[in-house]
TrEMBL record:
Organism: Haloquadratum walsbyi (strain DSM 16790 / HBSQ001)
UniProt EC number: 2.1.1.45
Record-level GO cellular component terms: cytosol
Entries under InterPro entries matching the protein: Thymidate_synth/dCMP_Mease (IPR045097), Thymidate_synth/dCMP_Mease_dom (IPR023451), Thymidate_synth/dCMP_Mease_sf (IPR036926), Thymidylate_synthase (IPR000398)
Domain of life: Archaea
Name the UniProt record assigns to this protein: Thymidylate synthase
GO BP annotations, alphabetical order: dTMP biosynthetic process; dTTP biosynthetic process; methylation
Active site: C168 (nucleophile)
Family label: Belongs to the thymidylate synthase family. Bacterial-type ThyA subfamily.
Primary enzyme class: transferase
Pathway: Pyrimidine metabolism; dTTP biosynthesis
Catalysis: reaction(s): dUMP + (6R)-5,10-methylene-5,6,7,8-tetrahydrofolate = 7,8-dihydrofolate + dTMP
Gene3D superfamilies per UniProt: Thymidylate synthase/dCMP hydroxymethylase domain
Length: 336
């Protein structure tokens, strides 16, 4: 899978130094897009190891999306990847599943015409008056697969205004061509090293599950990332990337690479020319690790098989990965 290497190098070559709310600076690029064919294997990155506890975290996160829960009480027993954004009680304002499965609708007295779709007998109205977007999408794919309106939104303006972390991957569209189920994901903000590999895998799993439920074949995963960024460290190290010539030199060196193994030389240059004892020992500077990853050749894609269970019954144990032979793991620290 060449797309990930292309994404990393595109962000480094076109991105600008950008401090942000987390306190860990980024190299940030506006608007990246790529597609991945899901017919020739499952796009779990092979240039770093995402098996074991990482695969378990990824699957648990995916099952949590499908669950419709607005808290992480079950999720946090399986993985800590969401803990930083929830309160002690496990409540989280960025609950994708809540919006996918139980999208809130205005109360009857404030509804305008056309906002009243979850009328009492609507098939996809939940008992609490919320709307199950995913169930509705499945029905549309079965009954009206040529539809160009099969859009699921996790964006809720009132929620976004108060949330500690509004949804990053906030909307996706199903589109069928030749009996193939394509998914187009739009993401407002993408952490290239940590989140994006998880997001690629989660939406590819979603395409696989929904294709299975609708008797379609998984087609293409398309991904648009508005702010595509690579965390580059804090303190001296972050600022160092922001200083005039560093990024230019990095870009020139990336430009001169003919053979991917040379990304390792760029990495060595970067580490040698960094200010003494960079404040990146904690792993917040993702650039060296990503350059190592770019130097590695992608291996053949693994396969995923999902048991034939209903959407509401899918658990981690129903998703089976085989033929995964990744390069060694790379450690990156997550900016909160
Ligand atoms: N915030 C930031 N800065 N980056 C993100 O990717 C991100 N997310 C979610 C919410 N906020 C974010 C959380 N998702 C890992 C993976 C996904 C996350 C958060 C953290 C992570 O640390 N992955 C490790 C392994 C974890 C493990 O072993 O359990 C890895 O090496 O991949 C984007 O959705």
């Amino acid at each position: 899978m060449h797309q990930y290497r292309d994404l990393v190098t595109a962000v480094l070559r076109s991105g600008e130094h950008k401090p942000n709310r987390t306190g860990v600076d980024t190299i940030s690029s506006f608007s990246q897009h790529y597609t991945i064919n899901l017919r020739d294997g499952f796009p779990l990155l092979t240039t770093k190891d995402l098996s074991g506890s990482r695969w378990h975290s990824l699957l648990s996160e995916f099952v949590w999306y499908l669950s419709g829960e607005e808290h992480i009480r079950s999720l946090r027993e399986e993985t800590s990847i969401w803990d930083a954004w929830a309160d002690d009680d496990g409540r989280l304002e960025t609950a994708y599943g809540r919006f996918w499965r139980r999208y809130p609708v205005p109360s009857t007295d404030s509804q305008l015409p056309g906002e009243a779709w979850p009328v009492d007998d609507h098939r996809w109205r939940n008992d609490d008056g919320t709307f199950d977007q995913l169930a509705y999408a499945i029905e549309q794919l079965q009954e009206n697969p040529q539809s160009r309106r099969i859009v699921i939104s996790a964006w809720h303006p009132a929620n976004a205004a108060i949330s500690t972390l509004p949804p990053c991957h906030y909307t996706f569209v199903f589109n069928v061509q030749n009996n193939r189920l394509n998914v187009h994901l739009t993401q407002r903000s993408g952490d290239i090293a940590l989140g994006v590999p998880f997001n690629i895998a989660a939406y590819s799993l979603l395409a696989t599950v929904i294709a299975q439920q609708t008797e379609l074949t998984p087609g293409t995963f398309a991904h648009s990332i508005v702010d595509a960024h690579i965390y580059c460290g804090m303190g001296d190290r972050g600022a160092w990337y922001g200083e005039g010539e560093t990024l230019d030199s990095l870009r020139n060196r990336l430009e001169a690479v003919d053979n991917p193994s040379e990304y390792r030389d760029v990495r060595s240059w970067l580490l040698e020319s960094a200010p003494s004892e960079p404040a990146n020992q904690s792993g917040y500077d993702h650039i060296p690790g990503l350059l190592e990853q770019c130097a590695r050749s992608p291996r053949s894609k693994p396969q995923v098989a999902i048991d034939d269970v209903s959407l509401d019954d899918i658990g981690v144990e129903n998703i089976h990965l085989s033929g995964y032979d990744p390069a060694p793991a790379i450690r990156f620290a997550v900016a909160e």
